[in-house]
Amino acid sequence: MKILKTIEELKQIRKTIKKDKIGFVPTMGALHDGHISLIKRAREENKIVIVSIFLNPTQFLPGEDLDNYPKKDAADIKICEMCKVDYLFMPESSTMYEKEEVLIKAPNKSYILEGASRPGHFDGVLQVVLKLFNLTRPTNAYFGKKDAQQLSLIQQMVRNLFLDINIIPCDIVREKDGLALSSRNVYLNKEQRVQALKISKSLTKAGQLIGKKEFDVKTIKNAMKEVMCDLDIEYIEVVNKNFEPINTVELKNTIILVVARFNSTRLLDNLWV
Ligand code: AMP
């Protein structure tokens, strides 16, 4: 595996790859089994695998956890080596950005749900993902369904800007007890870790109701609130794949999204039905 730090190095390597399929997995590091599942899938489906680790400052709002975000470069490098990644791109912030830049503006649906509490977050996400796409020019790019709104906006960016890249959505990887893996889980203390289980349990409950043909969104939300009774719920929302709120579950076109807060730690989870 080659570690690349500069744009020039990556460009040079990219020039040498002519017709081989390239799988690309962008991450912010502190890799866990969720990231690993994306990398493994990329490894299975492509000749060349490129992973990026870049803590992108433009997607963090002032006061968010940019400075405290877990950093595990040495472990991340080992994981990528074990997953047989070909190229690991780890640039500095100054390598990726100038002082003032041409900006990408995410559409209005980026200001609901995640964007409501993190306005501008998705502008930063799209900005960096477009830069990384332009540098790597992958055949396939792998994203977790865990960040469902991000995935949807990236799919839209690819459509709107006519990028020739397949976006591959990947299933959510969970701990044995159901908690969705996240780099931010390390912020939880023991008690919060136990409480956090209620998030995935509420989604299991929603899935059970839908299995019994209960499609009414109000009823489903109420049942989820009961499971998460003493949690600080930021939102429970039910949307279609275009991220429009719906009142009735449509099978194969519905995402149930939850965010709960544990002090300043926000945990996201969702269920695609
Ligand atoms: P991040 O490092 O948080 O930017 O995540 C990089 C990629 O890994 C994104 O596409 C995430 O959606 C994906 N990801 C993060 N956690 C999980 C998980 N538990 N299961 C599957 N994919 C995940």
Keywords:
273 residues; Pantoate--beta-alanine Ligase, Chain: A,domain 2; alpha/beta; binds adenosine monophosphate; 9 strands; three-stranded antiparallel β-sheet; Rossmann fold
- CATH topology assignment of the largest domain: Rossmann fold
User: What letter string, H or E per element, gives the SSE order?
Assistant: EHEHEHEHHHEHEHHHEEE
> Overall 3D geometry?
globular
Structural class: alpha/beta
CATH class call of the largest domain: Alpha Beta
What's the Cα radius of gyration? 19 Å
CATH architecture of the largest domain: 3-Layer(aba) Sandwich
General description of the model:
The structure is a single chain. This protein is α/β, with parallel strands linked by helices. It folds into two domains: 2-170, HUPs (Rossmann fold); 183-272, Pantoate--beta-alanine Ligase, Chain: A,domain 2 (2-Layer Sandwich). 37% of the residues lie in helices and 19% in strands. The chain is built from ten helices and nine strands. The strands form two sheets. It has a six-stranded parallel beta sheet with strand order 1-4-3-2-5-6, with helices on both faces. The model has no long low-confidence stretch (mean pLDDT 97). The protein binds adenosine monophosphate.
Summarize the structure.
The chain is an alpha/beta fold.
Outline the secondary-structure elements:
Elements: E1 2-4, H1 7-16, E2 22-27, H2 33-45, E3 48-53, H3 73-82, E4 87-89, H4 93-96, H5 114-117, H6 121-136, E5 140-144, H7 148-160, E6 166-170, H8 190-195, H9 197-211, H10 217-227, E7 232-239, E8 255-262, E9 265-272
Parallel strand pairs: 1-4, 2-3, 2-5, 3-4, 5-6
Antiparallel strand pairs: 7-8, 8-9
